[in-house]
Amino acid sequence: MNNSTDSKFSFKKNKAPKPLKTAVHPTNIIAYLVQVAVAVYMYYFLRNHFMMLVLSVLAAAPVLDAIAFIFMYKSIDVKLEAPEKETTRNSIGFIRLAITNKSLMVSFDTCVQLDSENVFYENKNFTILSLPCSARNTYEKNIPVRYYMNGIYKYAIKTITVKDLLGFVSLKKKCDALAEVHVLPDIDNSHEFDLTDMSKGMTESEETIKKGHDFSDVSDVREYIPGDKLMSIHWKLSAKRDILMVKDRVSMSDQQMVMLAELSGTDEEVDEILSLTYAIVDSFVREQTYVRLMWWSEGKFSFEERQIVSRENLREAFPDIFYEKIYQDSEKTGRYMRSIRPELKAYVKVCMHDGRAEAVVVEQD
Question: What are phi and psi of 314, to 5 degrees?
Fold first, then answer.
């Protein structure tokens, strides 16, 4: 098994190469025919058995090459893997590509088309990799990737071309290798937010949202004391010990922070908005404050919202934003919020202000 990390995969918008397709290589065919012509001339000039052997080999080579190529073409398989399913913006990761050849034949030039896409920003690109393919072996290549922006990165190998040993033809083959990476904002722990400035965005937690959810953390398990709530009883542990045991909890705040992420602007601006939103929500959660994260969905023409009660919950819910569309009218969320959600007296909106992402408290009349 070979392992190589000598090449880099770039997301920069350079001139894209041509997609892979089945092709005949006339230069190689002409070069081969010239060799045959020279061998024929030498045979008639020298009239010896060695040149006859050379001619026989040259005549049989294309037939043997075609048969071997058919077996090799059917035996090649491609796999794609992202070892890290989740990472942070500005981090460096890699995609592992593996080509397996189960036949006894070789190919010195197997071309792989690696497609990439950032789903949220709709940035698409692809690169062509030319790789060797050894007999009965697996060739692995680790492709370094730098994640400059947030989003869901999808990688796919749908097409490869396999060239025969003599280089006469490159035959296209369809594949189905996929990998996906969630890139979340990186949090600078050295930067602390003044959460008190956003206190006007606090509202009482709605009973309909709280119903059926327990926004608290288990700190200990102890024996039952008269007056404890039945919902706090640890039934499994009580059955084992033959005595009622209850879960001692540290409650989250009775209030919730309503936060709206504005998905408006250029790709770079929206990326900054998302990074700031993630950092602020993370700060509130660490302070044990319940957050209702909202954003405007162009596709559903409504506000999407997620209840965030823990950092793990934030990591799971935040990628849902990456399936939305960026819009240009930054004022629409304010209008829609007043008409659709008039019960919200105030909320915190993360948007672009004076060329930078900021959190602004919006009070509704």
Answer: -65, -45
Reading the chain (365 residues) residue by residue, the pLDDT tens digits are 444 433 344 444 444 556 788 889 999 999 999 999 998 888 888 888 888 898 899 999 999 999 988 988 899 999 999 999 999 999 999 999 999 999 888 888 889 999 999 999 999 988 899 888 888 899 999 999 999 999 999 999 999 999 988 989 999 999 999 999 999 998 875 555 555 556 555 554 443 343 344 444 445 677 877 767 666 777 777 777 778 887 765 444 456 788 999 999 999 999 999 999 999 999 888 888 889 999 999 988 999 999 998 899 999 999 999 999 999 888 888 899 888 888 888 889 999 988 889 988 888 76
Contact 156, 178 (CB under 8 A): yes
Find residue 253's DSSP bridge partners: none
